[in-house]
Design brief:
Layout: E1 2-7, H1 11-22, E2 27-30, E3 44-45, E4 54-55, H2 56-69, E5 73-75, E6 81-83, E7 89-93, E8 96-105, E9 109-111, E10 127-128, H3 131-134, E11 142-146, H4 150-160, E12 165-169, H5 179-186, E13 191-194, E14 197-203, E15 210-215, E16 221-225, E17 228-231, E18 235-237, E19 267-269, H6 281-301
The structure holds NADPH dihydro-nicotinamide-adenine-dinucleotide phosphate.
């Protein structure tokens, strides 16, 4: 029996693990097959205090090392289902079951898809959600980045190091991206903009060959040749295994109170699976810390 089982090993899960272990609580971290969360897919992080600039995977590896050094048990597999109907709570990992007095869900979020024709078929064959992972495959190619937020800008800058030309396709003329990122992109002569355009279809037999775009002002459609399409249109929470068990909002983000407690007492949630607004490594880490302290407080009162 564990005092706490944490599901998810991004900044929220790792920070919570550190606080729980340092309070001598027996803690299991179900880290997932792809442990480390979304920072494993990013390049330089320049807004995590204490690090002027650090690679996302490097930051997460350091967090994980710290977690392990404190004696937290780590399983590098996904939680497959949960049973929170009876105490102690159960977390299933394939055919194994783990029991915990308290649960902290920190499963984060994943990149959103456009849901247009051709997209699913061509994922891994020109359609990508990770420029850091796939940019080197597009050396001297023509690529598109879809979206107008910081992720889109970051992807465009990464791709510009390899590709011949990068075009940011965005559905509005205004951008959600921060001023500094937008300025860096505008200063890069390899990066062009196409706004306000919507992707209607991704075309290609073996690999991406073109996209069908719709101009949202004129309503006219046009075909744009390209070799790659990088999606940077936001995220969806990884909360499927908790559907019907925990209260969620209409987008699937888990509802918590000011103490990070979900609709089931003793089950907590923190990080991007809860937060659709801030979604920063530092806010996830901060919330993971707060949730862990709430758990420490609750267990010490038992
Ligand atoms: P955002 O939600 O900020 O941006 C998503 C973009 O995708 C928006 O421009 C949105 O358009 C567009 N979009 C959404 N759905 C669709 C659709 N179906 N079709 C076409 N376009 C669509 O997400 P990000 O991932 O960019 O950023 C998330 C958070 O992470 C932000 O807080 C950001 O600041 C942060 N971040 C910070 C970085 C850094 O500082 N280095 C790097 C990356 C992210 P619209 O604007 O019209 O809604």
């Amino acid at each position: 029996m564990y005092d706490v089982i944490i599901i998810g090993s991004g900044p929220a899960g790792c920070t919570a693990s550190i606080y729980l272990a340092r309070n001598s609580l027996k803690t299991l971290l179900v880290a997932g097959y792809k442990s480390g969360g979304q920072l494993m897919l990013t390049t330089y992080v320049e807004n995590f205090p204490g690090f002027k600039s650090i690679l996302g995977p490097e930051l997460m590896n350091r967090m994980k090392e710290q977690v392990i050094s404190l004696g937290v048990e780590v399983i590098e597999k996904d939680a497959t289902s949960v049973d929170f109907s009876l105490y102690p709570f159960k977390v299933f990992v394939d055919d194994k079951v783990f029991e915990g007095k308290r649960i902290l869900i920190a499963t984060g979020a994943r990149p959103k898809l456009l849901n247009v024709d051709g997209e699913k078929e061509l994922i891994g064959r020109g359609v990508s959600t990770c420029a850091t992972c796939d940019a080197p495959f597009f050396k001297d190619k023509y690529v598109l980045v879809i979206g107008g937020g910081d992720t889109a800008m970051e992807y465009a800058l990464t791709l510009a190091k390899f590709s011949r030309e990068v075009t940011i396709v965005h559905r509005r003329e205004e951008f959600k991206a921060s001023k500094i990122m937008l300025e860096r992109v505008k200063a890069n002569e390899k990066i062009k903009f196409k706004v306000p355009f919507l992707v209607e279809k991704i075309i290609g037999k073996e690999k991406v060959e073109a996209v069908l775009l719709k101009n949202l002002k004129s309503e006219e459609k046009e075909m744009l040749r390209c070799d790659g399409v990088f999606l940077a249109i936001g995220h969806v929470p990884n909360t499927e295994i908790f559907k019907g068990i925990l209260e969620m909002d209409e987008k699937g983000y888990i509802k918590v109170d000011s103490r990070f407690q979900t609709s089931i007492k003793g089950v907590f949630a923190a990080g991007d699976c809860v937060d659709s607004k801030y979604r920063q490594a530092i806010t996830a880490a901060g919330d993971g810390c707060k949730a862990a302290l709430e758990i420490v407080h609750e267990l010490s009162e038992l």
